Amino acid sequence: MSMPSDPSATSTRITRWLCCPECHAPLTVNGSEILCPSSGFRGSIRDDVAVMLPEATESFFDDTFEFMMHGKLNPGDWSFGYAQQIESLTRSLKPGMLLVDVGCGPGLPYARPDGVEIIGLEPSFKSIRVNRQVDLRVLGSAYAMPLADASVDAIVCFYAIHHMVGDKVNDSISNLSRAFREFGRVLKPNGTLFVFEMTPIALFLCLQALGWNLGRRLIGKKLDMRFFSAKEVKAIGEQTLPRGTIHEMTEFKVSPAQPSHLFSACPGLEFRGSCTRWHRGFTNGECHPSERPVGGHVQSNECLPRAA
């Protein structure tokens, strides 16, 4: 569903949902200016987008905008990797929830659930300005989210975290850790974080570990992906998310017989994806049953020990 442009509604949603990305204080809107009286932060509204990054900030997604738009206009190319994940997500969303889609791009791969309001957080202006499926479009960073503490019901990262790269492997791990700390900060108690990703096979992970830093030095930001193993993602969650957060992982597999030209050159290839889900259901460290994702095999259901 396409959301109509409404400047007054955008201003209202900014003051209702967003806060200063630097000090998390409330914002004011004056025409096209977004201001934080506490820190002096200044953002803007441009093309009905809340710009919460410096105007000079560029994203490598700006250079891949045409590719991203192709995926939006031709969803069948990747529907084989989305269908089960979308079912898992939409079954968990209820009317009245506020959802943040991190790295939402130019469009959503899922239909808006009835009664759910969506904030799209995206580092590429070219992508976010054409996304008409979210209630508020925000040019911002997952490392400094312009959202108040305990303010959102759910966060989804749909094939986004492998783009949170730095110049070295350790920088990429640090980036994801920063993002997860922000996710833990802005989620409400009983909130849920969904991370959907491709699941690399062991051989790929070994080759990536051996060559990623060299590849980044040789081709720079053109190497804009680094895939995390399930073990790495779980460890980062344990180190950064609040105590009592329940961890679950569901693996999805798609047969190479699934219709898609992406498999035509590699008939033996099997797509493997996963949903790693954290639920802030409890704050005392106890583990209780929670609603499990559907469409795959739950590999773990554990309670994180780290203190908030």
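That was protein one. Protein two is written in the same sequence-then-structure order:
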Amino acid sequence: MKTLLINGFEISSLGSVYFEDDDKKYVVIGDLHIGLEKYMRDQGVFMSKKQLPEIKKGLKELVKRYGSDTILIINGDLKHDFKKQGYEDAKEIKEFIRFAAERFRDIMLIRGNHDNYLINIADYLGKDLVDFVQTSRFFITHGHKSMILPINKHIILHHEHPSITLRDDVNAKIKIRAYLIGRIRKNKDYYVIVVPAFSYYSPGIDVLSAYYERDSLISQFDVEDFEVYGIYEDEIYKFDKLRKLREAFY
């Protein structure tokens, strides 16, 4: 796992954000989409069950880097199927939360747009399911619904699954996960960090060609001026602003 420190927070090649605040350590991940393999199998598409083992592997790397005294924040979409709660989904989510609870100081669960039935599992495991978490310097929410955001804190969002598709001279393509990071216009001391999915099977939506939902929180910001940080083969690459990448590739 490679990391990059930006103005008091650290991003990683796994798709996480680490920061220290209020004398505590936090690491934020989101868009895990546990249960995706079963959902796709029910649609007639076979996917090997790699998602949960790869997520566990990623958690071990986070603990190795930041220590077991770190608080893990799950920023939405822990599960994939938002229409129903099946036995297999519940079993995997409980397994994941127990695995994480053994390795982190605490776990905080933020509601995402796929988490309609997660409240039942959260109650069973004695965890609260909230719409946001805030500390002195950070505000973390999934990003799928409109809300009033602070201008005096760094804002961490998921939901968009940002990625970029790169092309060469013969139009060969490669799609990589990416962060979008930009300053808050009304207070340039603080940043908005749009984080890629922690899911093994969710490379994301190409932000070079995507247009955002009106209710999505990312639409409140001038994302065109955000810097793009791509992830490829366990490395982090800083690209240009999103606007300039659009001009270069489209």
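The chain has a mean pLDDT of 86. Keep this in mind for the problem set.
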